[in-house]
Design a protein that fits this description.
The complex is a heterodimer. Among the domains of chain A are: 149 residues, Alpha-Beta Plaits (2-Layer Sandwich); 33 residues. Chain A is built from 7 helices and 10 strands. Chain A has a 4-stranded mixed sheet with strand order 8-1-10-9. The mean pLDDT of chain A is 90. In chain B, β7, α5 and β8 form a beta-alpha-beta unit. Chain B folds into 2 domains: 52 residues, ADC-like domains (N-terminal domain of TfIIb, Single Sheet), CATH 2.20.25.90; 83 residues, no CATH class. Chain B has 5 helices and 8 strands. Chain B is α+β, with helices and mostly antiparallel strands. In chain B, strands 1-2-3 form a 3-stranded antiparallel sheet, with no helix packed on it. In chain B, strands 6-7-8 form a 3-stranded mixed sheet. In chain B, strands 4-5 form a two-stranded antiparallel ribbon. In chain B, 13% of the residues are buried. The longest helix of chain B has 21 residues. The chains are: A alpha+beta, B alpha+beta. Chains A and B meet through α1, α5 and α7 of A and α1, β3 and α2 of B.
């Protein structure tokens, strides 16, 4: 299947949270007990059991008639092109970048080390001490490979969420940005498979929990490009030298030297 | 565990080599997730919650509802569902769903479990009693009205179209005029 993308057009979001419920239902995620804390945003944060969440941020408007304006944002995994979580993951198969563009976690191989939690520039993977694993949005990998759109996109009532082949969605995003005089996110050259269209009245910095300048963490680059190859060279060297030593010297002969080095049989 | 120096060297060397190869080549197990809707039958239906009437596909396997989602081919909703509609699956699968009739006597503070026979008989008796008492054949002007004003019928939001049809027919046949829906109150 070709590379696909999701476009989140924030000019159209009404905060109905159908995407949140559809995600919970499709992925059979557990419900969370929450309390009212003065905002419609509920649950308060992403978690092991909440893979997508509509954030309600209040913005003071310059318009005196509309004193407060809501900034709504559907938060979830951005499915990065060169995903730091996949690079950070030490367990093969636990986090995989699929050809469809999705970054998928596989609980079967997850060892719960939280390396991805630290590496993610968007703070998306969430760890559960109870399950000792991480979980996050999978772009409904089990749906898109069957020709369906992700559960959140299907449920979206206003057409705020769009899903399709990469080229179509990119063209659509460019056209829509011009149409609403908004801006695209991420706009610093960081490539993701989920993109936002920010309305003209809002700035990226005004959205809570949205990294204005996402990048692959420097520690990740050091690990991947420097330390990991060095470790491999080191390990390979040890193995190679051991073989060489065997070829030159032959097998080590154990000589019985009586009681030298301690006598356990005494 | 009894390991000689030689055994120890062999073991560590072997482990090192194994990890070196494993990490170096980078074998990734193919991601395979069980297909949730495999062998499921698709049943088109209508969301019962409000008057919009969004289309829903209910997935059924072995007589059990396993999933419900928006119907992309439906002309009204094009597959979209609101947050209530998205949770439709829970109408059928819910631990808190009542499966036996409960009865709370007048003035009582607790519910007690009763049998269907008892509950239906009691409802029938009470309906008959109230209807006999409140039936109006003619109004003040002498016109024939045949109405019952002391019983009201309250529809529930999770009744579907087919269930509502006989319910309203039944209420009209009794002569009820106060026919309401829970979502409007």
């Amino acid at each position: 299947m070709a590379e696909h993308m999701m476009l989140i057009d924030l000019t159209k979001c009404t905060g109905c949270r159908a995407c949140q419920v559809a995600c919970k239902e499709w992925n059979s995620l557990r419900a969370e007990k929450t309390v009212f804390n003065g905002t419609y945003q509920n649950p308060p944060d992403l978690s092991y059991d909440t893979w997508t969440l509509v954030r309600f941020d209040e913005m003071k408007s310059k318009d005196r008639l509309k004193k407060v304006k809501w900034l709504l944002r559907k938060e979830g995994c951005m499915h990065c092109e060169d995903a730091p979580c996949v690079q950070a993951c030490p367990s093969p198969g636990a986090l995989v970048k699929t050809p469809e563009g999705a970054v998928v976690h596989n609980p079967k191989y997850c060892i719960g080390c939280k390396a991805c939690v630290v590496a993610c520039p968007f703070d998306i993977p969430r760890y559960s001490p109870k399950d000792e694993k991480i979980a996050k949005c999978t772009l409904c990998y089990d749906r898109i490979t069957e020709g369906k759109v992700p559960a959140c996109v299907e449920a979206c009532t206003t057409g705020c969420l769009e899903f399709g082949p990469k080229e179509d969605i990119l063209a659509r995003a460019m056209a829509r940005v011009k149409e609403v005089n908004g801006s695209l996110y991420p706009n610093n050259g960081y490539k993701t498979h989920v993109m936002y269209i920010i309305p003209d009245y809002a700035r990226i910095e005004e959205y809570s929990h949205l990294n204005p300048d996402p990048r692959v963490p420097a520690t990740e680059l050091w690990w991947k490009n420097l330390f990991k190859p060095l470790t491999l060279i080191g390990m390979g060297g040890v193995a190679g030298l051991a073989v060489l030593h065997y070829l030159i010297k032959g097998p080590h002969k154990v000589e019985d030297k009586g009681t030298e080095g301690g006598d356990n049989n005494a | 565990m009894d390991i000689s120096r030689r055994g120890f060297l062999k073991l560590t060397g072997g482990t090192l080599a194994a990890t070196g190869i494993g990490v170096g080549v980078g074998i990734h197990p193919v991601f395979a997730q069980p297909r949730k809707l495999r062998y499921a039958k698709e049943v088109p239906s209508i969301c019962p919650y409000c008057a919009v009437g969004c289309g829903v596909i209910v997935h059924v396997r072995e007589g059990r509802v396993i999933n419900a989602e928006g119907d992309p081919d439906h002309p009204i909703s094009n597959g979209s569902l609101c947050s209530k509609g998205s949770a439709l699956y829970q109408i059928a699968n819910n631990k808190r769903r009542l499966k036996k009739p409960l009865y709370r006597a007048p003035g009582a503070s607790t519910w007690k479990q009763v049998t269907w026979d008892w509950a239906l008989d009691r409802i029938a008796n009470k309906v008959k009693e109230a209807r006999d008492k409140g039936f109006t054949h003619k109004n003040a002007k002498g016109q024939v009205v045949n109405r019952v004003e002391n019983i009201a019928c309250l529809g529930g939001a999770s009744l579907d179209n087919e269930e509502v049809y006989p319910l309203v027919k039944f209420a009209r046949a009794l002569g009820l005029v106060y026919i309401e829906h829970q979502a409007r109150i």
